[in-house]
Write a structure and sequence with these properties.
two-stranded parallel sheet, single chain, five-stranded parallel β-sheet
Length: 231
């Protein structure tokens, strides 16, 4: 079963839409900059109802955020909300929590980092870049490939995993990669803000040899070309 209709929900639907053994909860607040208490309350209510309705399902998957480790963002209402939702999910006997970074894929959501960069660069609109900020980009297809291993493993129940690119990149490198794909220079100014935090992915790295997921060989540019290169 899939709860949600966004990028993550659509990506997992072919595998788990008709499953009675796995519930993928991929709904909720889509704007990580939100401070709207009403939105957060709405997700809490919906998630609480989903947990009650699927209390007997063997596996209940929830997607948290790797931003819990970001010194600049961890006190943001969105991040605190996601931690509170994780605590709710952990009460489920089949809980599996996967924390994600910035996920690349086709989505109309204007609040994603990559959609924001693409729109600003394509329209030659100015924007700010945090000089000391690093971000982590992963293809939604790789999220599904890696997550499915843990979903199929009963020993993963009750655990929290980071599912992210082994490399975090400076924001300026991500902007430059998007410039390369769009074929236009970005119009931006630097702000002396940001934070570089490590994301622990040792559990995930053990899966890579058997799955063939390649985070090397210009991974970021390859992913951006997949979703943003002009036709």
């Amino acid at each position: 079963m899939i709860i949600g209709s966004g990028l993550i929900a659509r990506a997992f639907a072919p595998h788990w839409q008709n499953s009675s053994e796995v519930c993928i909860y991929a709904a909720g607040v889509s704007n990580s900059s939100s401070r709207d208490a009403t939105e957060f309350a709405r997700e809490r209510e919906r998630l609480t109802a989903a947990l009650a309705a699927h209390a007997q399902v063997p596996t209940f998957v929830y997607f948290g955020t790797c931003s819990v480790g970001d010194g600049e963002l961890q006190q943001m209402p969105y991040v605190q909300h996601k931690l509170a939702m994780e605590a709710l999910v952990q009460q489920h006997p089949g809980a599996l929590i996967l924390r994600l970074p910035q996920v690349a894929g086709r989505t109309p959501n204007p609040h994603t980092l990559l959609n924001f960069l693409y729109a600003r660069i394509a329209r030659s609109e100015g924007f700010a870049v945090w000089q000391h900020a690093y971000r982590n980009i992963i293809d939604v297809a790789d999220v599904v490939t890696l997550a499915n291993v843990w979903i199929a493993d009963p020993a993963a129940r009750g655990r929290v995993f980071n599912l992210a690119n082994p490399r975090c990149l400076p924001m300026r490198d991500i902007v430059q990669a998007m410039e390369q794909v769009v074929g236009k220079p970005a119009v931006y100014h630097l702000e002396p803000r940001g934070y570089h935090y490590p994301i622990e992915v040792s559990d995930m790295l053990r899966l890579l040899p058997q799955l063939g997921v390649d985070f090397e060989h210009d991974y970021l540019v390859r992913v951006l070309r997949k979703y943003y290169e002009p036709a």
